Known about the structure:
Layout: H1 2-17, E1 26-29, E2 34-36, E3 46-50, H2 56-67, E4 76-81, H3 87-96, E5 102-106, H4 112-116, E6 123-127, E7 133-137, H5 143-149
Parallel strand pairs: 3-4, 4-5
Antiparallel strand pairs: 1-2, 1-5, 3-6, 6-7
Amino acid sequence: MKTPLLVLFVLFIGHIVKAQTLPDFSFEDVNGKVINKLSLPTNKPVIVIYFDPFCESCLGQAALISKEITAFKDITLLWVTTNADRENNAFKQKYFNNAQNAIVAVDTQFQFDTWFGYSEFNAIYCYNNKHEKTKSFTSTQSATTLLEATK
């Protein structure tokens, strides 16, 4: 009886330790284009930030990243909101107007929690270049911390 329990325990622990990968998701960018896991560049780190264009800490996070945007040039920045408002365009223009690696997307189906887990605004999920989850945060982080978290 001990052997089957040991096998189950090892399988359970192996499941927990297994790296979480970037989930299969589907959002729409500010122009209505579908953004999903397959549409993101491969072999590049990804930072997913759940935000609201009216959230002060979210805007603070955007300002911190925007100031150091050249350091993020090889990282896809996916800003996701449930707010289908024209403020999303203003947010993109203000903080990331010329940043091709920054995507502002809308979760029109309210599935973010299903794919990434329960989140409140300014939740940050970092993935390395193999799209394995490396860190997550629930508060504003420095550019340096975010860059380190994608390694």
